[in-house]
Amino acid sequence: MRAKQIIAxxxxxxxxxxxxxxxxxxxxxxxxxxxxxxxxxxxPFRFDPEVKVEVPTFAEDPTQVxxxxxxxNLAGEIERIVVWADLNPIQHIFTYxxxxxxxxxxxxRIKVQQGTAVRAAVLTKSGVWHMGGSYLDAAGGGCxxxxxxxxxxxxxxxxxxxxxxxxxRETGGRYKFKIIHPMDTGLVDAIPEFYIEQVVVRxxxxxxxxxxKLSQPVSENPVITLDVRHxxxxxxxxxxxxxxxxxxxxx
Length: 251
Description:
Layout: H1 2-21, H2 32-39, E1 45-47, E2 52-54, E3 58-59, E4 65-70, E5 78-85, E6 92-98, E7 102-110, E8 116-124, E9 129-138, H3 154-158, E10 162-169, E11 172-179, E12 196-203, E13 208-214, E14 223-228, E15 235-241, E16 246-250
């Protein structure tokens, strides 16, 4: 009898998730259903105000649009975070695997081709995706504009150079780092795609605290901000681009 009650409760719980998933897209994007299938398939999900995507009211420069994804109210339960822009020609922006010692909040700059919904899907240990998003109004053409590095030999001799700063916070600390890289999308004639694919922040013991898989829409010379819970530890950052170049530096 007890087993039947447990099974019934589980089925009821799944039913609630499915019912919530049938709610209309709050951002009213024409590609919502297609994008959902591409990134999370038929997995259960729900729109969740605890997943915040912060974007400017209007992005005047579509090649450098600041966004922040904040899922810290789900900390400790997160498997991964996937972020995309519905109407970009390359929709995926980044996938983030945060360690429990890292606050699940990340900021960077992206390219957008037009006004679009920007989504963050947070997979928790329960197997449910928690969806957040914002509409970004922007001038067009950010993904098909050549990087400044394409016409400047500076980046060739400084490729992968990093600068970082640390800021103390009540919840721990915040790293902000910049990497010299053209981040070419491959959508400009005669300029092949060339971008950073992986970013890993490690502690002194070599444990991965934050793993980011980046895609072409991340802006040229990426500026990334991550929060950590134990600021007194030493941290390293390791990068690899799609050309096989690897870079490592102490933060």
